[in-house]
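Write out a sequence, fold above all:
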Amino acid sequence: MSYYGPVLAVTAIVLATEILMGRHRGIYRRDDILVLGLCALLNPLVTRILAGLLIAGAAALLLPQGKGALAHLPLLPSYVSLFLLVEFAFYWGHRWAHEGQRRSALRWLWKIHRTHHAGRYMNVLVTQRINLFWSFVVPTAWITGFAVYLGQGIAVGLVILTIFCWNLITHSHFRWDDAIRRHPRFGTMFRAIEHLLISPGMHHSHHGYGKDGASYRNYAVTFAFLDWIFGTLHIPQGRPWRYGVPGAQPHWAEEVFYPLVRMPAKAKESGEADAAEGAVA
């Protein structure tokens, strides 16, 4: 199942709406443009293709008799099972990436994932701000790649579409959920739902630091109950004080090409409070 066309179409619609509403005005620096441009161009054209070939080769090597072995399974149970498996695996891979900020053994994984967090803004373009090597390490790629080899291509396409559309909702600059969360009648009900599903506010807090920022919480893409079960749930009151990564900023070339390129970090710009340094520690 080809999913890239629908993904591009939905992304373009949300992006155009954000631009028309002025949500992208004056927020990008030269480094942001370089990172976003290179990631958006090279990930679909180069690295995801190479990662797909690597995963397909690994599947054929490890399961030589398995090609199409699960093609007979019905679509709905396959979709639900694959969705839950992908979400569970991503939660832990994502959590370990963030633990790389504290654990030296996982530092490399954090530096690959850090690209997605280094932008000091939140909108749908952040979904494209992905280091070129993330596709080689993220559990989602390996699980869906093996599932395609086993004959579950349609289920894989639907899972990827679901996850990406939810990513657009949670990364978008529009924060319709704030008003619901503060509503005297519906707020309690909505906060209960946030124990099950990731809302835009929850993911925005994951990309933030300072007050109501919590990059060490809300690791799930869709199912907040994973964060609830494993003790990493954070339901915010509003937007985080700042978006991005506090402290010295990674060089744009390292953001895109790490670990092939390693460059000295740039000093934090003036005006950013030092007290926020510990917010992501």
